[in-house]
Write a structure and sequence with these properties.
- With 395 residues, the chain is of the alpha/beta class.
- The protein folds into 2 domains: 254 residues, Aspartate Aminotransferase, domain 2 (3-Layer(aba) Sandwich); 131 residues, Aspartate Aminotransferase, domain 1 (Alpha-Beta Complex), CATH 3.90.1150.
- The strands form 2 sheets. The chain has a 7-stranded mixed β-sheet, with helices on both faces.
- Helix 5 links the parallel strand 2 and strand 3.
- The chain is 39% helix and 15% strand.
- Pathway: Amino-acid biosynthesis; L-methionine biosynthesis via de novo pathway; L-homocysteine from O-succinyl-L-homoserine: step 1/1.
Length: 395
Amino acid sequence: MSDLDWNAFHPETRAIRAGQRRTPEQEHSDPIFATSSYVFQSAAEAAARFSGKAAGNIYSRFTNPTVRAFEERLAALEGGERCIAVASGMAAIASTAFGLLKAGDHVVCSRGVFGNTVLLFQNFLSKFGVATSFVELTDYAGWEAAIRPETRLLFLETPSNPLTEIADIRRLSELAHDRGALLVVDNCFCTPALQRPLALGADLVIHSATKYLDGQGRCVGGAVVGPNELLEKQIYPFLRTCGPALSPFNAWVFLKGLETLHLRMRAHSENAMALALWLEGRRGVTRVYYPGLPSHPQYALAQRQQDSGGGIVSFEVEGGREAAWKLIDGTRLLSITANLGDVKTTITHPASTTHGRLTEDERRAAGIGEGLIRIAVGLENPEDIANDLLRAWGE
């Protein structure tokens, strides 16, 4: 099946079939290659593979057939030439940064990103001489003003975490390329089932496979997708040398997750839309953030850029942290956890969990208040989700 042109197939078919190479055993499901190393037929063959003169497996830190199958399938879904899979979403961002950046380089990053992403750029890359400027996601004049001659990357999440703000990917890609920089988009919230940043001009796409690509909260992993020129020459050497490797078992789980990705993302979006509409009419809810709502500031852009609103709904409640924690603690069906992308609905308080390591000023600048709650809407019946919140409100 590896000789098929996957561009000729619909995305749902690619999600099930792309990347599979059957062994002589002719297995129907993807196999797990649980091995650390591989046997060579001769010393000469080993030398040829280690030097790169011959293709083939060497060591599972950077070559494994199960991981490769996941990489090829995700690349086919995103429309990228190459994918590099790694141990986590943060490992994907770190591998991209360490592969592409050097001392003296500059990054422009949106404030509306996962808290650890902020800390990576701000606290760790700065130790190696890489400077970062943070801007509002939808302030395009701010993006342009922040770019310097030494700017190498523009980095963003769209939709953002946790406020689901939407950035115009094509506009930012044109800005980046006009100034000699690369655009890197974290596509965790939408996945390629709902949004394909590379088709809109992005250079690289980042994934936390832990989330929707898995879909059932089983494993941790990450990936970078983009042109072979960038990945092979700059990011892959970091993986091979430093070893943030994805395990074959986790890659196999993600392969299974991709098979149902499109079905799940449609269902997540339908349930999230129902919950968002219900929350908009609730007493004590001051604001609801969901790209599928006409009240969302970037609703029109979301309609053009995404196939649907996705599965994340955030909302603010009156009473700040006390009221937010009381509501969260009062739920019985929903899972209190900061993970997302699961078939089980999860609920969290971003200011004290996902963004808790940011300073109060940094959270305020990112729009993350003490009354903000984020729900990653799962695949339960949406009436049951709403009823659980009603019980938590004491109704």
